[in-house]
């Protein structure tokens, strides 16, 4: 009963945050549609033409796909100047709201954002392909497998972002995020140096196995377990963090 109550309170916190940031959600929708439309041309080039866009496509996917786990809010725009995440934690601590409930609320936000933004982003790609009369090698089921593969990756990386977000001041969180994104760029460069391509590989595996793709299920499992484990570690350290 206590666990159920914790989720109920977490859902209340989440709804309050969303209602207070309704204006920013409009920008969130526009950004995801723009990003999906932009990436549709990149995806078409990777599938149909030469290798020129493949390193850039890998880099963009590794850096930007985790963003589907966020939604724009006043807090996310002001964290560098006002250290808004620390202020939020301090405010909830004074109410007092248990750390476990705060973490549950953040993970509700993560799941809802991935579902909402994922539909916008991957849906925009499909719409642009349909609007332009473009063809791909993926059926609808295979495309869902492709999308879920990258969603698993987004879950894992967002676990890292939540860890950094809750345990650091705004400026430190900013620099750690920059290091993480730079690491993704380095990974894409290294893969390209070895003549690999993550995007093309995920397309090929999805086309071959569809919803039986071992890469998709492995990505979702690792992503979910990674996000869960990072949440446990964040919660343990958050109990000891000085918010003053």
From TrEMBL:
Signal peptide: none annotated. The chain crosses the membrane at residues 23-46, 52-72, 110-131, 143-163, 172-194, 214-232. It comes from Paenibacillus lutimineralis. This is ABC-2 transporter permease. The keyword Transmembrane applies. It comes from the Bacteria. Keywords: Membrane, Transmembrane, Transmembrane helix.
């Amino acid at each position: 009963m206590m666990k159920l109550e914790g989720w109920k309170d977490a859902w209340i916190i989440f709804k309050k945050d969303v209602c207070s940031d309704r204006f920013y959600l409009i920008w969130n929708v526009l950004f995801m549609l723009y990003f999906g439309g932009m990436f549709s041309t990149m995806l078409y080039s990777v599938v149909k033409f030469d290798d020129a866009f493949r390193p850039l496509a890998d880099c963009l996917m590794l850096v930007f796909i985790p963003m589907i786990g966020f939604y724009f809010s006043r807090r996310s725009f002001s964290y560098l100047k006002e250290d808004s995440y620390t202020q939020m934690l301090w405010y909830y601590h004074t109410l007092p709201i248990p750390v476990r409930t705060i973490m549950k609320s953040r993970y509700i936000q993560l799941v809802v954002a991935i579902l909402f933004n994922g539909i916008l982003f991957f849906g925009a790609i499909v719409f642009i392909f349909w609007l332009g009369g473009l063809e791909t090698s993926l059926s609808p089921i295979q495309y869902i497998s492709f999308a879920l593969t990258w969603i698993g990756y987004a879950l894992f990386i967002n676990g890292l972002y939540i860890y950094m977000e809750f345990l650091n001041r705004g400026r430190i969180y900013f620099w750690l995020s920059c290091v993480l994104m730079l690491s993704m760029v380095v990974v894409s460069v290294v893969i390209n140096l070895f003549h690999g391509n993550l995007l093309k590989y995920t397309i090929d595996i999805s086309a071959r196995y569809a919803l039986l793709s071992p890469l998709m299920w492995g990505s979702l499992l690792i992503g979910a377990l990674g996000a869960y484990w990072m949440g446990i570690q964040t919660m343990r350290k958050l109990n000891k963090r000085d918010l003053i």
